[in-house]
Amino acid sequence: MRRTFDYLPHASQPCVIGARVRVPFGRRMMVGIVVATSDDSSWPTEQLKAVADVIDDEPLWPSMLLDVLKWASRYYQHPLGEVLHHALNKKLRQGDAPTSADIEVWQLTDLGRQQTVETTKRAPKQWLLLCLLQDGAQERASLTSQGANGTTITAVHKKNWIELAPLSALQDTNVAASQQPPATVEQSVAITALNSNLGRFSVSLLEGITGSGKTRVYLDVMAEVVAKGEQVLVLVPEIGLTPQTLSRFRQHLGVRIGLIHSGLNDSERLAAWQAARQGEISVLLGTRSALFTPMKNLGLIVVDEEHDGSYKQQDGFRYHARDLAVMRARAEQVPLLLGSATPSFESLANAKAGRYHHLRLTQRAAGGKLPKIAAIDMRQQVMAGPLSAPILNAMSEHLKANNQVLVFLNRRGFSPVLLCHECGWFAECQRCNRPYTWHKQFRRLHCHHCQTERPVPSQCDSCGSTQLVPVGQGTEQLEEALQAHFVDYPVVRIDRDSTRRKDAFDQLVNDVQRGHYRILVGTQMLAKGHDFADVTLVVIADVDGALFSSDFRAAERMCQLLTQVSGRAGRAGQDAQVLLQTHYPEHPWVQQLQTQPYDEVADGLLSERKQAQLPPYAALAMIRAEANDENKVVQFLNEVEAELRKVPVDKTVTIMAPSPCAMVRKAGRYRWQLAVLAAQKNAIQQLLSQALPAIEGLRSAQVVRWHVDVDPQETV
Ligand SMILES: Nc1ncnc2c1ncn2[C@@H]1O[C@H](COP(=O)(O)OP(=O)(O)OP(=O)(O)O)[C@@H](O)[C@H]1O
Ligand SMILES: [Zn+2]
Question: Looking at the predicted structure, is the pLDDT value of residue 584 above 50?
């Protein structure tokens, strides 16, 4: 509901703005948040109910942060109640008291210190845990984030190898920053510039090529902030919070680090939230929603891999954490540091316009050159399997030289289609009208659009033939083919299927880092942010599908992804190579990727955006609707269009006619959308805020699912 509700104050306890209260709502008692107080109400006083219970005597957020949330509610056209709800963790939403109790800190005992790989041979997980604690005590949440689970901790504790330690033990883990290699000249320049901006609001974009050592820059600036007794909030993409990141932060800073991410339980999240709010931790490291954590003495916000799509929430409150980070930094008057090898076009445009400081790292920290991408024309190759002969030969050479090879394919499963050889029928999801992906590993057909599954048919549904053949390649098939071809080199596959178990991902990454695997096959999970020192060849198995997307951001995304994947090669300073297989070597994007660095490609694409008057040079919002009955969707959006056209707007505003989404049917529902474009963001804001009350009142709005998406990332 896009509104707030009035209550009389509690009989004895004061209700402060930003605090939670319990209130009667209909027949239930609910947790509410006080967002404003007033001397009068538009409702007759005798009809108002009173606050039943005051949960917090202090506001949950400082007023500046609450103001940011209120602003976000208006900007994203999302009900304030839901925005505030989203900004709280589950325990707080339920009305639990904020508490940071129960922080368990573990350290090695003397007996634990005597253990070796040999004595823990049958329990590699226990050995991992002991290794993690070698540098000093750690919190339970920190250990579980690095691949040690609760069972392991309990087992090792029973053996008296580890013991609970006081919180103060954490301070002793300080590994002096002086043990790091000296910063490069470019790093030093960036660090000096950033340090001179501390203490007030500014936004800096650190554009540093892959492997240029951006993390080192963050860490040095963070150390400066922490030394002043202030706190740092660091956002990382959803899959970017690796054990490696965490241990680098721990070692370099030697302070307590709070964590907020989806792998933690509710109590752990609440504990980190409270510790940040009380100023008990100096650094809070988290994914998207950690942005809303109150910090007692915030001094800096860092958004790593700022271009990453996971910063945009794709359902409910559809905010962009990077954009809201700008608002928060301004409200709290602290600097914001955005970092990426492949900055978003939004941030690049802001940097070019002089709104952001633009800092660059153009050299790799460990020396060596950035690998160039070379395309292999698949049309001229006899394909014996998923990879062409020149690729297999190149792989062979790199493997023989004792290096690792990373093969990237952004498609899970064995094959994206299972086809009847005799009649051409293929297994298709009836709810999405798209082929099922065959997952050999799970012996299932899986729809990647609606997540439904069915058993693999042994016969064609149409003609009864048993000749069902896979068409196209997924990572499973690639793994199988490569293992058969390179018998002597262990292959590992890293994608969402092979890492379903809780710590599987961390474990696999660990094994890759220890050099156990020589060939790494994976999706974008493998492509981002990892520092695999021995990889000297990256193979991009297939990009052709991406060349045909009609999303105006498709070129930007492809370029970012491929630059990131390529950046995994040669990070320890070796000569490295990237090979890309394609049927379209003459496609302009493929050409550009081979001849130009990211920033030049981005320049070209940005001028195209400017010409076409698309974001970041225009503001965009989308109203999307879906229902089982397509007519109802169309009727609703037609009425939306009519309502929008009633609002007087400036002439830069373009209201588009409703159109079907690229994937018009998904999970049984038909999907259409309507786009609104304008030169300025506030023109869109005015239009939407004036039209939405009427749109909500439409009868046709009651029979479809619909939402508003301001600054949408997906536009098809
Ligand atoms: N000053 C330095 N001297 C030597 N090595 C360094 C220095 N700074 C960073 N490195 C090393 O360079 C490698 C790349 O650093 P880092 O992972 O921070 O790069 P990055 O810029 O974050 O790259 P990406 O965007 O690809 O993730 C790491 O192995 C790191 O230890
Ligand atoms: Zn489906």
Answer: yes
* CATH code of the domain in which 509 resides: 3.40.50.300
CATH of the domain at 697: 3.30.70.600
Mean pLDDT throughout 360-371?
Answer: 92
How many angstroms separate the Cα of 132 from the Cα of each of 113, 153, 282?
Answer: 12, 12, 21
- List alpha helices for 160-229, DSSP H: 185-195, 214-227
Residue to substitute in 212, 214, 216 for testing ligand 1 pocket (most ligand atoms within 8 angstroms of CB):
216
Q: Which residue segment(s) compose the domain that 287 sits in?
A: 177-361
The reply to whether 661 sits in an annotated binding site is no
Atom of ligand 1 at shortest distance to CA of 248? Answer: 31
Distances 122 to 26, 118, 150, 508, 643 between C-alpha atoms, Å: 58, 9, 18, 18, 68
On the question of pLDDT at 97 being above 90, the answer is no
Q: Is the peptide bond before 416 cis (omega within 30 degrees of 0)?
A: no
Same domain, 311 and 213: yes
- Model confidence at 170, in pLDDT bands (50, 70, 90)? low
Q: How many angstroms separate the alpha carbon of residue 559 from the centre of ligand 2?
A: 28
* Number of independent structural domains in the chain: 5
Using CA atoms, how far residue 87 sits from 284, 407, 685, in Å, is 15, 39, 22
Q: What is the pLDDT of residue 580?
A: 95
Rounded to the nearest integer, the mean pLDDT of the chain is: 91
Q: What is the pLDDT of residues 430-446, one digit of tens each?
A: 999 999 999 999 999 99
Task: Sheet with 138-139: list strands edge to edge.
Answer: 138-139, 105-108, 162-165
pLDDT at 171 (0 to 100) = 58
Query: Element (H or E) spanning 278, and its range?
Result: helix 266-278
Domain identity same for 89 and 110 = no
Supply the ipTM of this predicted assembly: 0.96
Ligand 1 centre from 413 Cα, in Å?
33
**Residue 605, SS3?**
helix
Same domain, yes or no, for 498 and 598? yes
Residue 270 belongs to a domain: yes
Q: Are residues 340 and 381 in the same domain?
A: no
The tens digit of pLDDT for each residue in 683-703 reads 999 999 999 999 999 999 999
Structure tokens belonging to residue 364: 């790799």
What pLDDT, on a 0 to 100 scale, did the predictor assign at position 178?
46
The DSSP secondary-structure symbol of 304 reads E
**Is 613 within the bounds of a domain?**
no
